[in-house]
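Review form for a predicted model. The reviewer records the input and the model, then writes brief findings.
Reviewer: anonymous (R2)
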Amino acid sequence: MSEEQDNRDELETVEDENSDIQQDSDEFETVEASDDDLKDIQIESSAATVVRPRRKPYSGMWGPIELGAFGIAALLFLAVALFYLLAVVPQQRELTSGQKQRDELDRELTSAKEKWGDIRSTETRVAKLITSAEDFESRALREQSVGTTSIYQRINVLINAYGLRNTSGPDYVPLETGDQKSTSSREGSGQKGRDKFRSIFPGIYISTTVEGSYPNVRRFIRDIETSSEFVAITSVEMEPSEDEVKQAESATMEVSDGRGGKTTQSYRKGRYRGNVVSLRIEMAAYFRRPADQRLVTSATVENSDDEAVPGGDSD
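Model under review:
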């Protein structure tokens, strides 16, 4: 009985399996019958896949657009820098130079106004210069005849007053005025040197050499500079006197020879304030012009005043 029961169970199991296989085959046939539908679905899905946009990977902040914008900005900055260096800087330098020149001209103009006042024409300026020269001539200079004698006496008195010894000169050479030409065809170096002291005023050129103590020589020069005559010292040369040098070279003294005796030994004297010195001095003295050589300014001043006030009374 048990065996039969087992066989039945196996049969039922086989039948169940057969039924399952049959169902699977039916399903397979159903799937085959709808292949056209599956193709349509696949086509639609592929089309949908093509239409869908793809996402790009992140490439950082410097993309092509950003790099292009940065390049354009760099070019603009370089162009501005070149324009500033080549155009703006030179203009600024020229402006600074022009301002300095303007300030200098303003200072010169202010100085001229302070010096010349309300000068409005060349004639007025010339007239003022001539007036100033004539005022100096009348106040500081003496007549030529009186001044020449006075300067001669002044030099001789000072030489005697300070105990000086006149070894050369005084030599007096007339100074021609600036508008006079020398009549000598051959001029020595001394004449050429004196030409630079010529002026519109007549004068004399004096040169002399004296010897004396240093303090007295200094006083002699000081008194000449402060004299009432208008004297300009042009050259001063001072050196030890030749007699003093000879005395210094021949000076001797007695010294002990170390054995109880004495011997004579020469020595050179040193310089001190009381040594005799030799002074060569050159100077130029100026005097008033003769009346016929003076410039007449009254007519010039009147003409300039008439030009400064154009028009006049219309009555």
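Findings: Residues 182-186, 267-273, 296-302, 307-315 have pLDDT under 50 and may be disordered.
Further findings: Residues 142-178+193-251+276-287 form a domain with the Alpha-Beta Plaits fold (CATH 3.30.70.60).
Recommendation: see findings above.
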